[in-house]
Write a structure and sequence with these properties.
This protein is mainly α and 183 residues long. The chain is 71% helix and 0% strand. The protein contains eleven helices and no strands. Helix 1 (7-25) packs across helix 7 (98-109) and helix 6 (83-96) crosses helix 11 (166-177). Residues 8-68 form the HTH tetR-type domain.
Length: 183
């Protein structure tokens, strides 16, 4: 009897595994053949689920920008309820993959004009989800400043060999937004 495969679940599994591959190799680092090899599937099987590398990248981005992924929690786990804990979780989660994601992002937008980047629906969706989560923590009026502090703080942390702690970055944002550590 042939093995029954839940097509949607397997598609999600492939896209989830591809996140690490994109983060390690960049968007242009591997073609579909290389991605298929890294996933341990045939190229034809990968094309069966994703007609193009762009489709796979979009599915991976969809997964990594889901609410639980932003906080580094499994779907069945709860997201931190205090604003201070939520802020720490979202910064820590982004920090764990920051270098790879920045390389991937810069490669993805390389040689594109500003309007093309501004019109990119995938970037808009990813940006919107992150901003929405920050807005729930610091308020929508200060979410852009918080975003800038997260990105700038994590870049500083990357460049100074992690001398800037997650707690310091979190404190900058809490002080800016006047987030009560116990709220």
């Amino acid at each position: 009897m042939p093995k029954v495969i839940d097509r949607d679940a397997y598609r999600i599994e492939l896209a989830t595994k591809a996140i690490d591959i994109f983060t390690e190799h960049g968007y242009n680092g591997l073609g579909m053949r290389g991605i298929a090899e890294a996933l341990g599937v045939s190229k034809s099987a990968l094309y069966h689920y994703f007609p193009s590398k762009k489709d796979l990248f979009e599915a991976s981005t969809e997964i990594v920008t889901q609410k639980h992924s932003l906080y580094g929690t499994a779907d069945e786990q709860s997201i931190p309820t205090s604003k201070a804990d939520a802020l720490h979780a979202i910064i820590s989660t982004l920090d764990s993959r920051f270098q790879g994601e920045m390389v991937l992002l810069l490669e993805y937008i390389k040689n594109r004009d500003p309007q093309d980047i501004a019109d990119d629906k995938l970037l808009q969706k990813a940006d919107s989800r992150f901003m929405d989560e920050l807005a729930t923590i610091v308020g929508s009026e200060q979410s852009e400043q918080a975003y800038a502090l997260v990105m700038g703080g994590l870049l500083l942390r990357l460049l100074n060999g992690q001398q800037t702690s997650i707690e310091v970055i979190s404190d900058w944002i809490k002080n800016m937004a006047k987030v009560n550590p116990t709220s």
